């Protein structure tokens, strides 16, 4: 073991232990868990702490009473005493019992990290004080001593049954040594001496806990605890909990002081000293040195460090991690093939205020319980009631019951999160080195050390080594040139923090400085949809099979999407995972599984001074944009969502830029096409609150690509959703790519003089709606429009490298598969035909509603219209059968039925299959672009809450604080301490309700 000039670095660099910084993070996590323990468990755990420590104390007293050593070799006696005592603390730390003195340090760190409240600190200290005290007294009174006290009891006095209890100390020598030990501790030193000794004592005890925490396996942990603890005993410092045993035992043995004197002279000064030693020198000290003023990951995520291989600092090696291809020439993604037209004035998504695409609503009814009678969650908030629940609107829930069992604490947590792994050879060498190196490292970190290197230079050294192993996208040179560049190509001289969360536990240092996060969400877009669009694009453009779509080049991992209450999510629950970083129930708009509002990353970013924006092709009040900007328990309460979006909520206005459709929820009910149920005119309210407002193409063009935007901006281009891309008239509505660039430029411009960047969510919303219709045309062209937007944003990120682009989906929709067997009796067929879709010029939804509008025409007229216009010109179908046309005529009055049938006609011809008009549960793809993406953070399979947590960490947000404000000062921590497996066990099970579906398919003649 060679110690070089930067011992801190050395600890992490060449030894198998956590760095001091990581150790502080683990201890923060520990403090959070301790703060959430039930009082009963905290008390019992503290009793264990008192009792286990008493074992060590007993050992000391037993050794003490060795007359020969006391007389002839007091130094040896002291050494032995010191070496044996730590057994108590070792047992406490390894079994996770609670000790007031170490809790002093942990809770101080938790409070300083703002993860624990002062009240929680006080409760924890008081409970562990009395728990330790009662544990120690129990141990002393029941196990150790005898009654009545000496000299009346002895090993031979068995007159009275039960008098003896443990009767460990019964020889006169032991008894007198015990009393003397007590007298020396209480009577000899002055009050202030005991106080100062208390400081030193807990400083050492907490260092023992720190070293124990630092170590990764049991033997090293034991060694880490042994030496500092032995030091405190050898020096005779005062530990308030050890004294809970020593001094009552001494009083029992006839010491010359009583209870009152003990409390005044010893307990109070040692307690105060211990608080200063552990809280100030260890807790606050290391907090300041390692986490203060630094960007840190958040610990609400249970698995940030728990059981994870955080591995060494330095991050991935970069080999094979980057999925990016520099040369984009392959793709040459140029879109739009001039297929607009066809439908004229009769088209009309914007004409209707019907809230969602056909079939979309079935996402909830599908899961209805047998009796279908469960009610929505009761909301008990006071001031939030008006936001969360429309008064008198006791809407029955059609979804499955949402009452999830209350959080169930799962026992005392300890700070020692990693189970013992192999106790390999070399441990003793390593632990010795660890001990020495760590002490030296700590000493160096305390400043003015004699190693000639201060902390900041250590950090610089450390960071430059890490950078060396990380590829840099924007450096513009070879990796060898990038040693001193940060992730965005800017020379690094500011430190930053380790971020670990991915299952692969990649280590990443979130950059300091300006950051933009661009979260793009392709709603209802699964892996099959990417293949579908890619195949079509290659076919249509006559390109090689190697051609990549823009998203293909950014693929990094996959996302799991299930909700709390169902294995198949809707956009609300999945969006809440992205916005709040928590799982919730289907329909939940930024509320947790109990219906309590949760702070979103948009709100957290706003709080820190970031600009914020939402762009979508759906109504701006639809679930995905809503989860970032409002809090309601039912996604269809879009009039409430609209109110909150323009600032009518406890946080005030949070969104600087709102762009999309959905005017109808902003206009009073008295006006035509309004969707509101009151007379509020939110457009006027927004304008008087400072919003600039546009609602058409001319207004959009006036924004001049974002350079003429006055934030806040409200842009509502349609009454309801914006058009499907295939139906969109560019003269009326901007494309998603156009809106995205305008928004990026506007937000960027607004922050040009700010240290903070912006957060924006951009949604390709109608990919999902088309999939609900099983409409391959609408689905396809909205995917391609989304790809075009991704391309545009990616190019923008290239010019603004402080930006991170994340793209993912909230869920798959439709159960799309390429390849279709018409019936199970048929032979399988290998292939699908993009060509069958190549001549369609409109979505089936728009065509379906056009057909349904032919009410004043005869069947014969409709047949002609179908033959000559609808099928041939709009759907590109020239081989419709008489049966198919008869069926369309039969369904003519129901727009959605016509839509479904048109979709089916296309799908059969293209050999495409869909399993549902709703969502499916498959994992969706995760794409990312930017240096953070290249650092490997997104690689692998993640739960969707990862995205919300990642953004929270990456931008250094405090969602805890936002959630607290939203809940009137309380923090209903979602499923804290809960057994998360409950969310799986409590899912509905097959109850024969779906047998009808099976019968339908099995019956003859269908
Ligand atoms: Zn959907």
Structure description:
Belongs to the FNT transporter (TC 1.A.16) family. Belongs to the alkaline phosphatase family. Mg(2+) binds at residues 523, 622, 624, 763. The chain is an alpha/beta fold and 1006 residues long. It folds into 3 domains: 21-291, Glycerol uptake facilitator protein, CATH 1.20.1080; 349-404 and 512-816 and 918-997, 3-Layer(aba) Sandwich (Alkaline Phosphatase, subunit A); 818-913, Diphtheria Toxin Repressor, domain 2 (Orthogonal Bundle). Helix content is 45%, strand content 7%. The protein has 36 helices and 16 strands. The strands form 4 sheets. A 10-stranded mixed sheet has the order 7-8-6-5-9-3-10-15-4-16, with helices on both faces. A two-stranded antiparallel ribbon has the order 1-2. A two-stranded antiparallel sheet has the order 11-14. The chain is elongated, with a radius of gyration of 34 Å. The protein starts with 6 loop residues before the first helix and ends with a helix. The structure holds zinc ion. Residues 360, 524, 571, 768, 772, 813, 919 line the site of zinc ion.
Listed once per kind, the bound small molecules are:
zinc ion
What's the story with the biggest beta sheet? 10 strands, mixed
Number of domains: 3
Evaluate the radius of gyration. Answer: 34 Å
Beta content? 5-15%
Task: Give the count of helical stretches.
Answer: 36
CATH superfamily of the largest domain: Alkaline Phosphatase, subunit A
Helical proportion?
40-55%
The first-level CATH class of the largest domain is given as Alpha Beta
The unreliable regions are 1-14, 295-332, 334-507
CATH architecture of the largest domain: 3-Layer(aba) Sandwich
Number of strands: 16
Q: What structural category do the secondary elements indicate?
A: alpha/beta
Q: Which fold does the CATH topology of the largest domain refer to?
A: Alkaline Phosphatase, subunit A
Distance between the termini: 79 Å
Transmembrane segments: 42-63, 83-109, 121-145, 194-215, 227-247, 267-290, 428-447
Family: Belongs to the FNT transporter (TC 1.A.16) family. Belongs to the alkaline phosphatase family.
Main location: membrane
Keywords: Hydrolase, Magnesium, Membrane, Metal-binding, Phosphoprotein, Transmembrane, Transmembrane helix, Zinc
């Amino acid at each position: 073991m060679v110690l070089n000039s930067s011992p801190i670095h050395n600890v992490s660099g060449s030894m198998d232990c956590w760095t001091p910084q990581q150790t502080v993070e683990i201890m923060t996590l520990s403090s959070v868990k301790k703060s959430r323990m039930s009082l009963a468990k905290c008390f019992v755990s503290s009793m264990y702490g008192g009792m286990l420590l008493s074992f060590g104390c007993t050992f000391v007293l037993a050794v003490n009473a060795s007359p020969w050593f006391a007389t002839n070799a007091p130094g040896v006696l002291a050494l032995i005493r010191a070496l044996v005592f730590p057994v108590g603390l070792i047992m406490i730390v390894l079994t996770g019992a609670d000790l007031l003195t170490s809790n002093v340090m942990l809770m101080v760190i938790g409070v300083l990290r703002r993860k624990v409240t002062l009240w929680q600190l006080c409760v924890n200290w008081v409970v562990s004080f009395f728990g330790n005290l009662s544990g120690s007294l129990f141990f002393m009174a029941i196990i150790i001593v005898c009654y009545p006290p000496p000299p009346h009891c002895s090993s031979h006095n068995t007159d009275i049954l039960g008098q003896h209890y443990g009767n460990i100390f019964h020889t006169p020598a032991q008894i007198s040594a015990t009393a003397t030990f007590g007298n020396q501790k209480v009577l000899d030193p002055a009050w202030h001496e005991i106080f100062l000794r208390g400081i030193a004592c807990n400083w050492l005890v907490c260092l023992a806990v720190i070293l124990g925490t630092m170590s990764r396996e049991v033997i090293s942990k034991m060694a880490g605890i042994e030496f500092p603890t032995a030091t405190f005993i050898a020096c005779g410092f005062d530990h308030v909990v050890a004294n809970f045993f020593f001094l009552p035992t001494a009083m029992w043995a006839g010491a010359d002081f009583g209870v009152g004197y003990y409390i005044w002279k010893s307990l109070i000064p040692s307690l105060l000293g211990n608080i200063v030693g552990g809280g100030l020198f260890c807790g606050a000290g290391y907090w300041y040195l390692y986490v203060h003023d630094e960007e840190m990951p958040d610990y609400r995520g249970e698995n940030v460090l728990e059981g994870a291989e955080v591995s060494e600092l330095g991050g991935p090696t970069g080999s094979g991690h980057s999925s990016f291809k520099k040369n984009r020439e392959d793709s040459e993604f140029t879109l739009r093939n001039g297929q607009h037209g066809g439908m004229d004035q009769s088209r009309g998504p914007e004409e209707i205020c019907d809230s969602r695409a056909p079939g979309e609503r079935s996402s909830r009814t599908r899961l209805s319980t047998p009796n279908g009678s469960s009610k929505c969650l009761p909301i008990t908030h006071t001031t939030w009631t008006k936001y969360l629940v429309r008064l008198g609107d006791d809407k029955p829930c059609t979804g499955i019951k949402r009452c999830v069992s209350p959080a169930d604490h799962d026992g005392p947590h300890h700070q020692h999160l990693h189970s013992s792994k192999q106790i390999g050879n070399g441990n003793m060498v390593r632990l010795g080195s660890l001990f020495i190196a760590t002490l030296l490292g700590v000493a160096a970190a305390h400043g003015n050390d004699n190693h000639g290197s201060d902390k900041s230079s250590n950090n610089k050294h450390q960071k430059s080594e890490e950078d060396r192993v990380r590829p840099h996208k924007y450096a513009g040179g070879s990796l060898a040139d990038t040693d001193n560049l940060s992730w965005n190509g800017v020379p690094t001289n500011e430190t930053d923090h380790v971020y670990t969360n991915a299952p692969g536990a990649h280590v990443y240092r979130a950059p300091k400085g300006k950051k933009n996060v661009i979260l793009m969400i392709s709603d209802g877009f699964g892996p099959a949809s990417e293949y579908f669009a890619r195949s079509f694009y290659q076919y249509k453009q006559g390109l090689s099979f190697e051609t990549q779509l823009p998203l293909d080049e950014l693929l990094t991992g996959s996302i799991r999407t299930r909700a709390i209450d169902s294995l198949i999510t809707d956009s609300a629950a999945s969006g809440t995972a992205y916005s709040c970083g928590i799982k919730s129930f289907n329909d939940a708009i930024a509320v947790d599984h109990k219906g309590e509002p949760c702070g979103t990353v948009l709100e957290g970013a706003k709080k820190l001074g970031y600009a914020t924006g939402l762009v979508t092709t759906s109504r701006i009040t639809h679930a995905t944009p809503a989860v970032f900007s409002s809090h309601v328990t039912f996604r269809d309460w879009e009039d409430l969502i609209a109110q909150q979006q323009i600032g009518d909520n406890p946080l005030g206005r949070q969104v600087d830029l709102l762009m999309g459709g959905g005017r109808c929820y902003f206009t009073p009910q008295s006006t035509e096409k309004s969707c509101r149920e009151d007379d509020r005119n939110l457009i006027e309210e927004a304008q008087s609150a400072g919003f600039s407002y546009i609602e058409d193409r001319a207004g959009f063009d006036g924004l001049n690509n974002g350079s003429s935007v006055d934030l806040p901006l409200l842009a509502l281009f349609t009454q309801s959703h914006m058009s499907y891309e295939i139906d969109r008239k560019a003269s009326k509505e901007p494309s998603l790519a156009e809106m995205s660039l305008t928004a990026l430029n506007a937000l960027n411009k607004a922050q040009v003089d700010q240290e903070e960047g912006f957060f924006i969510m951009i949604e390709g919303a109608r990919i999902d709606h088309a999939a609900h219709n099983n409409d391959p045309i609408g689905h396809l062209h909205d995917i391609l429009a989304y790809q075009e937007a991704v391309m545009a944003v990616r190019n923008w990120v290239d010019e603004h490298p402080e930006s991170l682009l994340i793209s993912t989906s909230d869920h798959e929709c439709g159960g799309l598969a390429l390849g279709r067997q018409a019936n199970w009796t048929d032979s399988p067929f290998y292939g699908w035909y993009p060509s069958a879709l190549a001549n369609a010029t409109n979505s089936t939804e728009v065509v379906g509603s056009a057909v349904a509008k032919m009410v004043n025409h005869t069947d014969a007229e409709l047949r002609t219209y179908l033959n000559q216009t609808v099928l041939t010109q709009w759907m590109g179908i020239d081989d419709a059968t008489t049966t198919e046309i008869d069926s369309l005529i039969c369904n003519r009055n129901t727009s959605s039925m016509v839509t479904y049938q048109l979709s089916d006609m296309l799908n059969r011809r293209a050999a495409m299959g869909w399993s549902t008009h709703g969502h499916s549960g498959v994992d969706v793809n995760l794409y990312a672009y930017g240096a953070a993406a290249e650092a490997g953070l997104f690689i692998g399979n993640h739960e969707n809450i990862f995205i919300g947590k990642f953004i929270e960490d990456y931008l250094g947000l405090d969602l805890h604080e936002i959630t607290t404000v939203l809940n009137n000062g309380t923090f209903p921590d979602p499923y804290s301490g809960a057994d998360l497996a409950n969310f799986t066990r409590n899912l509905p099970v097959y109850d024969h309700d779906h047998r009808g579906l099976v019968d339908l398919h099995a019956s003859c003649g269908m």
